[in-house]
């Protein structure tokens, strides 16, 4: 891509992210305004500096564990990239979390191509496994949380099963290859694209080994549990201790349903589900809205902030890697 066009796209992605953040803030501010400023400020005051640092640290645990999972997949693919490279790629991709079509996965694969020469089709199975692992990890965690929670969530079991089924589909190379063939026959064009996609999904068989699948699931469950636990702590500090596992169940259920809407980062859907479930637990409206706003800031938007910090470094080093690869220095 021409450098000038690349800069235009990068600026566009930045403005999209900023615009969605502004809409997120305005939407929650509108909800909060209906509760009364005094109540909200009192609730916000319950989360001081050390408590906020703990919430952010738990979010970092999630990002780190999922980054280690990405490294596990890269190692299995035989990319020859180091732990630092893979963590840099994974975290930098967070900058584009709320851009359309989840461009974070694409930019990670672009960096891999620059530094290793492996084309997009060669690293695409990693992105599929990353999505499948998140679905499976959240499905397992939701089922566990519902089993240990003192109160249930209507439809929670169905969502957990659907997440696990979708994760299973994403890890079935032969099934996906068949579906790819059906899609090509239905559309009737794009033979080259569908041929590459078919080769990519067949490469998923590399991850069927239990020595890869089990650690990947463990990292997924542990990572997402850390953010669910952060949500439980936050609710307790606000005086609405509904129990750890109920808080985890609400958090994971909201992430899954938000993602199902197809909106970037699950915006709108995740917040709506979280507020609604907290209200069903008997929480006052002001507490539900404030808790939702804070947990999304320290999870989703903190991830994007980390991504923006890492992105220019990853982009610069990938260009250096591409130059070294072209000149035979690697």
UniProtKB/TrEMBL annotation:
Keyword Transmembrane helix assigned: yes
Topology with respect to the bilayer: Multi-pass membrane protein
Matching InterPro entries: L-PG_synthase/AglD
Transmembrane regions: 12-32, 139-169, 216-238, 244-267, 288-311
Protein keywords: Cell membrane, Membrane, Transmembrane, Transmembrane helix
One GO location term (cellular component): plasma membrane
Top-rank lineage group of the source organism: Bacteria
Main location, first listed in the record: membrane
Keyword Membrane among record annotations: yes
Subcellular location: Cell membrane
Protein name: Flippase-like domain-containing protein
């Amino acid at each position: 891509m021409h450098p000038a066009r690349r800069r235009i796209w990068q600026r566009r992605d930045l403005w999209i992210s900023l615009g969605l953040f502004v809409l997120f803030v305005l939407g929650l501010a509108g909800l909060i305004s209906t509760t009364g400023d005094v109540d909200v400020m009192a609730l916000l005051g319950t989360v001081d500096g050390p408590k906020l640092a703990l919430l952010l640290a738990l979010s970092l645990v999630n990002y780190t564990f999922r980054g280690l999972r990405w490294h596990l997949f890269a190692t299995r693919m035989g990319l020859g990239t180091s732990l630092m490279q893979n963590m840099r790629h994974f975290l930098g991709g967070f900058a584009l979390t709320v851009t359309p079509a989840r461009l974070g996965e694409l930019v990670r694969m672009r960096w891999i191509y620059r530094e290793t020469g492996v084309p997009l089709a060669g690293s695409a199975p990693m992105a599929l496994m990353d999505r499948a692992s998140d679905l499976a990890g959240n499905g397992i965690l939701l089922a566990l949380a519902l089993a240990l929670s003192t109160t249930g969530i209507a439809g929670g079991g169905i969502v957990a099963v659907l997440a696990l089924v979708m994760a299973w589909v994403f890890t079935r190379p032969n099934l996906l290859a068949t579906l790819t063939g059906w899609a090509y026959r239905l559309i009737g064009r794009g033979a080259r694209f569908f041929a590459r996609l078919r080769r990519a999904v067949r490469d998923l068989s590399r991850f069927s080994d239990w020595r890869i699948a089990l650690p990947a699931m463990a990292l997924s469950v542990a990572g997402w549990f850390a953010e669910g636990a952060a949500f439980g702590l936050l609710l307790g500090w606000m005086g609405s201790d509904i129990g750890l596992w109920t808080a985890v169940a609400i958090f994971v259920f909201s992430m899954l349903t938000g993602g199902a809407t197809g909106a970037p980062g699950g915006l709108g859907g995740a917040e709506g589900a979280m507020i609604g479930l907290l209200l069903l637990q008997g929480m006052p409206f002001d507490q539900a809205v404030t808790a939702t706003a804070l947990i999304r800031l320290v999870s989703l938007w903190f991830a994007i902030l980390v991504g923006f910090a890492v992105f220019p470094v990853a982009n610069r080093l990938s260009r250096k890697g591409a130059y070294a690869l072209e000149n035979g220095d690697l």
